[in-house]
Design goal:
The structure holds two protein chains of two kinds. By secondary structure, chain A is mainly alpha-helical. Helices cover 76% and strands 0% of the residues of chain A. Chain A contains three helices and no strands. The radius of gyration of chain A is 17 Å and the shape is elongated. Helix content of chain B is 75%, strand content 1%. In chain B, helix 7 crosses helix 8, helix 12 runs antiparallel to helix 13 and helix 14 runs antiparallel to helix 19. Chain B is an all-alpha fold. In chain B, strand 1 and strand 2 form a beta hairpin. A two-stranded antiparallel sheet of chain B has the order 1-2. Chain B has 20 helices and two strands. Classes of the chains: A mainly alpha, B mainly alpha.
Chain lengths: 102, 487
């Protein structure tokens, strides 16, 4: 059986890639995709921990399913807000959306 | 403590949440069936409904002396969560009264529904005692708030505010969630009250526990807009509709503090010296950065945003001075938040009332306000002096208690930093008051009508600020009782 640590390392790598994407990408959709990667790494963590450490409880699975559902809601709202910005500015590049600044 | 069996009296414990949901559905029905010209009544329905819920909860949903976990350990019904719920319901009611005066958003039922959904999430946040419930509650709070910040789709700034708030908020909640997943893996449980036992059993290195704690605290610090996760606040407050900015800076911030208190104290008592030192550092930075950046602002909403960052820093003093010996740190945070919520709602209410007529949020536009509307100027003075921490207003008493918590925890230098920061704060609050009272403008003859909902809400707030400032002991005893109920 594949050891648990492999899953954890994989999830950590995925999380880091997602975080890098969020911080480095300029396109709003790409930023949202980065956030999705981060949430997926969380799900891998949760399911792996559940399977290896407490398979008799359903807590880990329930947590993962709730993360799915919330992530879907978050992306729906995110895309709606991106569309409303696009209607005003005709761009979704984060650098060009800079009316509010110090 | 965990009652696994079902007990119908549990429903009384979540009476406020159930009633908020019912009120939200009522608002939707009214929105559907009321004729268009009657839609300005929606705000009265929301505010009145919330007031009734507060009164009803005081009779029905009061927790008993010791807290108990309900619904299989998902929620905890205790004095702390109950006090925070009352704060959230109150600020939602006041915000509804401010919103109904706004032309673009005040007549739209979905605005009130979203605000109620967010309040529901906050109530669950303050009572959540399970990581799953906590995450769900945080998102129930945040997602409607993203929409509310970007609610004015015809306005460039508002859409941008919603957009930025969403991107930062979603990112930090993903970081928070990664921390939760590791915490679940380490301890094998998601119940906050069992986590500390699990961490003790696992005998993990302190570095690892503290690392997980940092991931989680990042998410909470974003909610309370403390440095280094503060950068979103000025942009979002400036762009969002003013009552929403007021709601964000009060209820949402108080919700962040309620989870910060519960998670840090209950789940991580083992690393208490480390996180309290960490919070002391954050608090010093937050106060200083917030106050210094507020000095240079030209826009009053941005200035209030930086001032609210600074106030998060003052409240964090109380959290940083928590030690195993004394409960003063916790009760000072709760008490600070009560006064801060009243004061900042009043400040944003004045800004909303003024911005509605003049259409400008520049500080320079406030010249001559004392002649155009003496009452509004007086309210502004009360709110700003209370924010600055002047007696006899509420802001003075709570600052005093927070600083005394720091002194009791042998953090005298922190109290000194706090006092110095208050002096910096006093400077920029007085600068605005100088513009209001001393400067003249050409518009002085133009009247400044204040809608009735604003007058009622501001009256209540000013009365509250004075009540806390003059008669402090009952309020302080209440927050001490709430602090005791946490454990």
């Amino acid at each position: 059986m594949i050891p648990l640590s492999w899953y954890l390392i994989f999830a950590a790598a995925l999380f880091s890639i997602g975080l890098f994407g969020v911080l480095a990408r300029k396109n709003a959709i790409a930023i949202l995709m980065g956030i999705e990667l981060m949430l997926n790494s969380v799900n891998i963590n949760l399911v792996a921990f559940w399977r290896y450490l407490s398979p008799e409880m359903i807590t880990g699975q329930v947590f993962a399913i709730i993360v799915f559902a919330v992530a879907a809601a978050e992306v729906a709202v995110g895309l709606a807000l991106i569309i409303s910005v696009y209607r005003r500015k005709s761009t979704i590049v984060a650098e060009d959306i800079d009316m509010l600044k110090f | 403590m965990v009652s696994g069996n079902f007990d119908p009296s549990m429903f009384l414990a979540i009476f406020p949440e159930i009633m908020i949901l019912v009120l939200g559905l009522l608002i939707l029905l009214f929105d559907l069936f009321l004729p268009k010209e009657q839609h300005d009544k929606l705000g009265w329905v929301t505010a009145g409904g919330l007031t009734l819920i507060i009164i009803g909860s005081l009779f029905v949903a009061q927790p008993s002396g010791i807290g108990e976990q309900i619904f299989g350990g998902m929620l905890r019904h205790d004095g702390l969560s109950f006090s925070f719920k009352m704060i959230f319901l109150f600020s939602a009611a006041i915000t509804a009264m401010f919103v109904m005066g706004m032309d673009k958003v005040g007549k739209r039922g979905e605005f009130y529904l979203l605000m109620l959904a967010s309040t529901l999430g906050m109530c669950l946040m303050s009572s959540a005692s399970d990581l799953i419930m906590l995450y769900l509650a945080i998102e129930t709070t945040s997602i409607p708030l993203y929409i509310l910040a970007g609610f004015m789709t015809e306005d460039d700034k508002s859409t941008e505010a919603g957009f930025k708030y969403l991107l930062f908020g979603a990112m930090t909640s993903a970081i928070l969630l990664y921390g939760f997943s590791l915490l679940f893996g380490f301890t094998g449980t998601t119940n906050i009250y069992k986590i500390s036992y699990g961490l003790q059993m696992g005998s993990f290195p302190i570095v690892v526990v503290f690392g997980v704690l940092l991931l989680i605290v990042t998410g909470f610090i974003f909610k309370i807009s403390a440095v280094p996760m503060h950068f979103w606040a000025p942009d979002v407050y400036e762009g969002a509709p003013t009552p929403v900015a007021g709601f964000l800076s009060t209820a949402s911030k108080a919700a962040g503090f309620s989870v910060l208190l519960r998670v840090l104290l209950i789940a991580f008592p083992g690393v208490l010296p480390y996180w309290s030192a960490f919070l002391v550092a954050i608090s010093t930075l937050t106060m200083t950065v917030g106050n210094l950046l507020a000095l240079t602002q030209k826009n009053i909403k941005r200035m209030l945003a930086y001032s609210s960052i600074a106030h998060a820093g003052y409240a964090l003093i109380g959290l940083g001075s928590i030690s195993s010996l004394s409960i003063l740190g916790i009760s000072s945070v709760v008490f600070y938040l009560v006064a801060y919520v009243l004061t900042n709602l009043a400040a944003f209410g004045v800004v909303a009332a003024f911005g509605k007529v003049s259409g400008s949020d520049d500080i320079a536009a406030y010249a001559g306000l004392s002649r155009r509307s003496p009452v509004l100027a007086l309210t502004m003075m009360v709110a700003f002096l209370s924010l600055a921490g002047m007696p006899p207003f509420g802001g003075f008493v709570v600052k005093f208690i927070v600083f005394s918590a720091a002194v009791q925890a042998n953090l005298i230098w922190l109290a000194v930093v706090g006092v110095l920061n208050s002096i910096v704060g006093l400077y920029y609050y007085l600068t605005v008051l100088k513009v209001v009272y001393l400067y003249r403008s050409e518009d002085e003859e133009k009247p400044l009508p204040i809608p009735r909902s604003y007058s009622i809400a501001l009256c209540v707030l000013v009365f509250g600020i004075l009540a806390i400032g003059i008669v402090m002991s009952p309020w302080f005893n209440l927050s001490t009782a709430a602090a005791h109920a946490l454990f």
